[in-house]
């Protein structure tokens, strides 16, 4: 067995799960890696997990497993509650929203790249104003989509007990707000470049 992999057995309820962890970038597996793998194997979210080894509860997520004395072939125990089907359904909604955010972000990235190309003079001067107006339109569409997504996230009413969902919702709102700020920045860049072109054209006309 390669030195950078470790297999441990974790008992959860009446089931035993064999978990193989691989070191990332040469670093030993951390408690966090084991907990993530346990979420995949059992469906129990990390915040709800309590991992026990030799009667002690392991807490520090960033610590290596070996620092707790956990070695290849060790047996551990995990207690914790799976999310309710209701919370899983809300999590799925949030994951779908996350996909919409990613798709809209890709469109925005494209606009940003094309704007950089225009600024670098990849298009004849006389065609630039038209191209910039089209880009401006695309940014406005992306901003509208992000606003709709924010409304959708806002419309999700999550009970206090859905801690996993609430954390994800909070993170999504922050991400979308960041993209909206980026939309404003790109729009400002487009206006700025348009103004420069118009000033140049006026100077030429004189």
TrEMBL record:
InterPro entries to which the protein is assigned, alphabetical: BAG-1, BAG_chaperone_regulator, BAG_dom_sf, BAG_domain, Ubiquitin-like_dom, Ubiquitin-like_domsf
GO terms (BP aspect): protein stabilization
Protein name: Uncharacterized protein
Molecular functions per Gene Ontology: adenyl-nucleotide exchange factor activity; protein-folding chaperone binding
GO cellular component: cytosol; membrane; nucleus
Pfam families, A to Z: BAG, ubiquitin
Domain of life, source organism: Eukaryota
């Amino acid at each position: 067995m390669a030195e950078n992999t470790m297999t441990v057995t974790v008992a959860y309820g009446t089931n035993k799960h064999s978990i193989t962890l691989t070191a990332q970038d040469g670093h030993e597996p951390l408690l966090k890696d084991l907990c993530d793998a346990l979420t995949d194997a059992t469906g129990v979210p990390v915040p709800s997990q309590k991992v026990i080894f030799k009667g002690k509860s392991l807490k520090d997520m960033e610590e290596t497993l070996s620092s707790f004395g956990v070695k290849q072939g060790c047996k551990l125990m995990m207690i914790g509650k799976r999310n309710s089907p209701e919370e899983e359904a809300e999590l799925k909604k949030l994951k779908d929203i996350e996909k919409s955010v990613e798709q809209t972000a890709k469109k925005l990235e494209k606009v940003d790249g094309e704007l950089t190309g225009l600024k670098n003079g990849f298009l004849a001067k006389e065609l630039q104003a038209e191209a910039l107006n089209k880009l401006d339109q695309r940014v406005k569409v992306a901003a509208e989509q992000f606003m709709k997504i924010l409304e959708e996230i806002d419309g999700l009413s999550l009970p206090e007990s859905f801690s996993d969902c609430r954390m994800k919702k909070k993170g999504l709102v922050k991400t979308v707000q960041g993209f909206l700020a980026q939309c404003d920045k790109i729009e400002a860049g487009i206006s700025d470049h348009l103004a420069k072109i118009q000033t140049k054209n006026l100077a030429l006309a004189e």
